[in-house]
Amino acid sequence: MMKKMKKLVVVVLAVAMMTMCMVACGTVQKDVDGDWTTSTINGQSLEDWAASTGQTVGACTTNWTVKDGKLNAVSALGNATMDVEYKSNGFEVKENGSIAFSVAYNKDAQTLSYKVNVAGTEYDYVMKKGTGTVGDAAPADGGEAAPAEGGEEAPAEGGEEAVEE
Questions:
Q1: What's the DSSP call for residue 156?
Q2: Using CA atoms, how far apart are residues 22 and 100, in angstroms rounded to an integer?
Q3: DSSP state of 146
Q4: Which of 10, 41, 82, 90 meets the CB 3.0–4.6 Å disulfide criterion with 104?
Q5: Residues 6 or more apart from 4 whose CB is under 8 A from it?
Q6: What is the rounded CA–CA span in Å between residue 162 and residue 165?
Q7: pLDDT tens digits for 3-49?
Q8: What is the 3-state secondary structure (H, E, C) of 34-98?
Q9: How confident is the model at residue 2 (pLDDT cuts 50, 70, 90)?
Q10: Which residues make Cβ contacts (< 8 Å) with residue 14, sequence separation at least 6?
Q11: Rounded-to-10 torsion of CA 151, 155, 156, 159
């Protein structure tokens, strides 16, 4: 009788824990599903980061739409869609079934944060609710946008038009 009682207690506790996990993950999904945009990079505001790296704010902006287990990311580099597995404190972003990176949700601050390592350098991102302008926006310092790689724009094929006198 005692063995059956122990098994019953174990089963009830296991079901209770699974239920709490599902409720917590469902709450996180409700909170994180929506539109998000870059707020800070490595602790700097997006504007300060852009100015310190000589980029435009639009080049540094990434917008995410998280919905129903999918993340659609839009940046100046293009678009990407990845799978999301909700956790009690955020979610994991997966590519081809493997975890690409984990995202933490801060309910009090209403932010998402994650870290990625690119070529040996770690970048720490914080995102806030909403969307930002992606692409060629004015530089953060108010100056002119830097020319594309390769310098100034080349004349159209064939060079400049000859002027007849």
A1: P
A2: 23
A3: P
A4: 90
A5: none
A6: 10
A7: 655 555 444 444 444 434 434 444 789 999 999 999 999 999 999 99
A8: EEEEEEEECCEEHHHHHHHHCCEHHHHCEEEEEECCEEEEEECCEEEEEEEEEECCEEEEEECCE
A9: low
A10: none
A11: -140
